[in-house]
Design a protein that fits this description.
about 210 residues; membrane; Multi_antbiot-R_MarC
């Protein structure tokens, strides 16, 4: 029994470290703050809640029936990487460019919104591809394909913990900004935007190479 517990604990630790490194919730804070700037607190909390719940639902579905879904719809992981790469690049580009002077086409984050609005932001890019992107989906599917149902439950529990950590970081975003300062946060946001754009290009390139078997 002790040996079995140790094996499950070691597996849970491996899954936690692997998924945490891929999700990297700290890097998502600037994105969340950028997309929800000037929103009231209930709206921010609502979007944070929806984003982690949607991300968890995505990972749960793909962990349980990912291979079946890919087969039924004829989806390939390469196509998912290409799509995710494009989305990540666009968000990163917008973060680097900043709000600008365009008053005719304001972003959602530039306007006060009600708590029941902004669901599109929670879905894309927060839930997918940032929190539940191709890398996270692939990793969770790989871990879930382990020996028995207990491994699947461990993957679900570990990702739920990561979602909770992410939610708390989102909620504490303003406090984090106060500690490190607005100017520093702006620099971090632009740096993360650049990194996201590069990650997007890399995802797109990897997906294209797989699609065309280069």
């Amino acid at each position: 029994m002790r040996e079995l517990f140790d094996n499950y604990f070691a597996f849970a630790t491996t899954v936690f470290m692997g998924l945490l490194a891929i999700v990297n919730p700290i890097s998502a804070i600037p994105v969340f703050l950028e997309l929800t700037s000037n929103m009231d607190k209930p709206s921010r909390r609502n979007i944070a809640t929806k984003s982690v719940l949607i991300a968890f639902s995505i990972i749960a579905v793909f962990s349980v029936a990912g291979k079946l879904i890919f087969h039924v719809f004829g989806i390939t992981l390469a196509a998912l990487r290409v799509t995710g790469g494009i989305l990540v690049f666009v968000i990163g580009y917008e973060m680097v460019r900043g709000k600008g002077e365009d008053k005719q086409n304001p972003k959602l984050g530039d306007q006060p919104v009600k708590a029941d609005q902004g669901i599109s932001v929670a879905i894309t890019p927060l839930a997918m591809p940032l929190l539940a992107g191709p890398g996270t989906i692939t990793t969770s599917m790989s871990y879930s394909a382990a020996k028995d149902v207990y491994h699947l439950l461990i993957v679900m529990a570990v990702y739920a913990l990561i979602c909770y950590i992410t939610y708390m970081l989102f909620i504490a975003g303003d406090k984090i900004v106060k500690v490190i300062g607005t100017n520093v946060m702006m620099v971090i946001t632009k740096m993360m935007g650049l990194i996201l754009a590069v990650i997007g290009v890399q995802m797109l390139a990897l997906g294209a190479m797989e699609l065309f078997k280069l």
